[in-house]
Amino acid sequence: MAGDVNLFFNEPDDKSVAEIEIMIAEPRSRRRGLAQEALRLMMAYAAESLGCRRFVAKIGQANVASLGLFRKLGFREFKRVEVFSEVHREL
Predict the structure, then answer these.
(1) Reported pTM
(2) For the chain, which has fewer Cβ within 10 Å, the N-terminal or C-terminal residue?
């Protein structure tokens, strides 16, 4: 297993917005496009099967690779949470 991609619906009655995250734990599997492909597949499934229309990613400010990955996928920054050193991006 290279890693995992997760989707969370933080509002039980609202499936239109989901928090999405990815982790490629295996170092040999990084920088090979797996994260991008896994995120695209998860978002397509969530949109087509679950009715999700907005995705939110909470990324550590120091995680340059993830910030670039989500930017490449079209996510835009909409919030910073300094107390947690997080950047929130949405699509």
Answers:
(1) 0.88
(2) N
Q: Shortest CA distance to 60 belongs to which of 39, 85, 90?
A: 85
What values do phi and psi take at 88, rounded to 5? -105, 130
Tell me if 52 sits within 8 A of 20, measured CB to CB: no
Q: What angle do CA 9, 58, 90 make, to 5 degrees?
A: 75
CATH number of the domain within which 30 lies: 3.40.630.30
Beta bridge partners of 59: 87
Q: What is the pLDDT of residues 21-61, one digit of tens each?
A: 999 877 887 888 899 999 999 999 999 999 999 999 999 99
Answer whether 36's CB lies under 8 Å from 24's CB. Answer: no
Number of domain units in the chain = 1
In the block, tokens 């090979």 appear at: 32
